[in-house]
Amino acid sequence: MGKVIVVTSGKGGVGKTTSTAALGAALAQNGERVVVVDFDVGLRNLDLVMGAERRVVYDLVNVIQGEAKLTQALIRDKRVETLYLLPASQTRDKENLTPEGVEKVIASLKSAFDWVICDSPAGIERGATLAMRHADVAIVVTNPEVSSVRDSDRIIGLLDSKTLKAENGESMEKHLLLTRYDSARAERGDMLKVDDVLEILSIPLLGIIPESMDVLRASNVGAPVTLADGRSAPAMAYFEAARRLRGEILPVTIPGEKRGFFGKIFGRKAA
Amino acid sequence: MNLFRLFSRPQSAPAARERLQVLLAHDRASTGDSDLVTKLRDEILRAISKHMQVDSEKVSVKLERGIQVSTLIVDVEIPFDAARKAA
């Protein structure tokens, strides 16, 4: 049985889709069977970040409505053969996602894959609550910025009350993924530090992804950042996060923090 | 970046941290009861209007959130003859 992960945040634009693609690819590069599922019905984007936008025939809604089989809707990645994508619908609205339909799809994916990674839409409504409903593990993507931290706190509350795990009296495993982190700005005191965010949200840290041009460059060409440039700072951070998801205990390094005197003066931008 | 500005500008992250701590303490305590101030305002108005006539436009209810305590400030303007009638 595979593990179901939801990548969620409340706030939009913090890096859920980027992180879903990067972590999914990182896990699959290690030979594990991974499917990334786009729950953002009406505003799908995971296909674009994965570079599969021209190969979408059927989607999640088609499968739920019985118009296509799951195997017909799954798109196999051209670079990593154990990586698959289940796209969202672009034309239907999210009312087409039924709790029963989602439950069936997740159950079949779980039996065929090691990891089922659900990319949640922004917000706290139907799409987001359905994406988190069947999760075993939640990744809360947060930027070191006040509105993102507040929304993450709200999402943590929902994870602890609106999921199947919570309703069964179990506790939901939650991890913080701090994205778009700029250690130079944090050191200057103009950005919340890792410890500030950890103290406020009080969930364990999965990784710190530095603010980087490499993320945009990867999405421009339609590749998860871990595939586009595996040696780049964000890719290395995602690889480490993926290893932690597998249960490895690794010390979290703050990207770009170990810079000498000259680095501090001349290299303000992290990564 | 201008060096002078770099040294003279106060850090903003501590403010972000403090504002979040106060805000989240309240968010967590009052999820689902976001219209608490509206409720309090209505009930306070009802209680006062039992004893005197007040103009609902001239009542202000404000909530100031602090780390340890919050302060509810109720400001009711009592017209001169309403006060005399009550006396």
The average pLDDT value of chain A, as a whole number, equals 93
Order of strands, main sheet of chain A, comes to: 3-4-2-5-1-6-7-8
How many strand elements of chain A?
8
Molecular shape of chain A: globular
Give a quick account of the main beta sheet of chain B: strands, pairing sense, barrel closure: 2 strands, antiparallel
For the biggest β-sheet of chain B, the strand order reads: 1-2
Low-confidence stretches of chain A: 267-271
Helix/strand structural class of chain B:
alpha+beta
Helix content of chain A: 40-55%
Poorly predicted parts of chain B:
none
N-C termini distance of chain A = 38 Å
The percentage of residues in β strands of chain A lies in 15-25%
How many DSSP-defined strands of chain B?
2
Protein described:
- The complex is a heterodimer of chains A (271) and B (87).
- With 271 residues, chain A is of the alpha/beta class.
- Chain A is built from 14 helices and eight strands.
- An eight-stranded mixed beta sheet of chain A has the order 3-4-2-5-1-6-7-8, with helices on both faces.
- In chain A, strand 3 and strand 4 form a beta hairpin.
- In chain A, helix 1 crosses helix 13.
- Chain B has four helices and two strands.
- Chain B is elongated and about 65 Å long.
- The model of chain B has no long low-confidence stretch (mean pLDDT 75).
- Chains A and B meet through helix 7 of A and helix 2 of B.
